[in-house]
Amino acid sequence: MKINLSKVGADIISALKKYPVEALLGLLFFVFFCIEDQLNWESSSELIKHIRDVMSLFPAFMVLVYSLHQLLYPTKGRILYYLSVLLPLPFLWVDLSHFVFTISYTFTLILAFFILLACKCKWENLSFARNCMQTFVSLIFAFFIGHLLALAVWGLYSSVVYIFNMERYDFPEYIYMFCLFVVIPLLYCHLQEKESEEHATPRFMEIIINYILSPAVIVYTAILYIYFITIAIHWELPKGGIGYMVLALAIFAMAGHMFQLLVSKNIYGWFYSHFSWIAIPPLILFWVGTIERITTYSFTASRVYLFISGILMTFYIFFLFSRKIGNYQLMAVVSSICIVILTFIPGISARSIGIHSQKQRLERYISRLDMLDSVTHKLKQGVVFNETDSLRWKDARELEACYSYLKDETGSDYMKKEYGECDISTKRNWHYMSPVFPSGINIEGYTRYYPMRTYDRKEYISKVKDGVITIRRASDDRVIISRDINAYMNSHRVWMQNEVADSVSLGLFITRNDSCMLVLDNISYEEGATIHCTSASVDAIFIK
Questions:
Q1: Residue 59 and residue 422: Cα distance in Å, rounded?
Q2: Where, by residue number, does the polypeptide cross the bilayer (predicted)?
């Protein structure tokens, strides 16, 4: 792709004529920013909050307008394209605070990206791959040129302010936002139109695909294989976040598979041509981990999205076996439809399913813990659960988690009306202690002081394992002092519960032998049938 920077101004004017609604939408959002910025310090009205929320949806609105341009502009339906500039206005009177920056908001942006890729209706895989490549390249160059323009203006402004001792204003910030809302989208539109007839893959994109993306996908796959073998040997369940890791692998692998149609050197064809088979162990990891989380903790909005994404991912990976059904445009369209259903259709949206599922789970825990007040028919107040009763304590923690999730999703007023306040206490048997030395520490006879919390000091190395703290000299790996903290704490259990007696504090946090003195900074421990030290921080070592 060759871009003459001297023609950027003329290109923008041309884009203004060809994409008037995109330009007007960008100007509208720039006006929103100006209003929000000017009134932000003077008003806390609902309108300002709503403007801020609507501004966060700018990518979605811009993609929608651009897609209508691609689909309707040459037809009689272009009136919808012209009217689409008004779409953000009704949302200024809608409370979007429970939507923006949630999982639904994230998938709305993903939906916008899928629509951007699919709006030109390229049903043949090679054409779709070329369109995706052009989209990525146009986005990269539009962002680069837009930020370069903003940086140039900022440099000129700062120079003028410095030379003429002028007072600084927010002018650079406004220039940057103008570039973000107006210049970058128009540059993207212009670059997409300019490159619509070019089919050569840019050299830098081939380098990214062959030497960054594909090797990263292969290494990532190998890591998941090693993890799969490890948990199979130890007969363990996958970690909770493994589903998102497998999903990320599938997305990048599918992108790499698609771009193999465009690269001149098909270096990794051996990997992508067999990816449907290679992906089986990661898919097993995904489904075991996801089903275990759903079975244990029920659905939330994020787990609904993950579950449906997993179903689509599984189908898409096996679609690659067939050229007829392995259609990338079809995958993008189906994914977009699923996101629309899960995000915007009441009753069957991911949020609705999550709320319904967590309500059922909350009521199970209320029944199991006998937390329903017979008089108020709401949650009992002031109930204390101690970790010594581990089963009820864990159930109480889950009840708190359910209540907190529903409170975030439905609002505190609704939860108070339906269930009352969640006023329970889950006391943990985890404790933290730091020393108290009212009389100070006697250091007579010691000649050298080594602060252990200074990271650039490496003379001595501390290690805590199974409640035993060991200090080794780095030069010869010789143990100079060792202390069994568990034994001391269990022999002084009464004091540990009351945390008094300075003499015992000296004995716990200070350890001496013939050659040195060890001073601890803090100790963390768990209390059950016995006391067990989980961690200890060394403050200093004194050497004679």
A1: 39
A2: 54-72, 102-123, 135-154, 174-191, 212-235, 241-263, 270-291, 303-321, 328-348
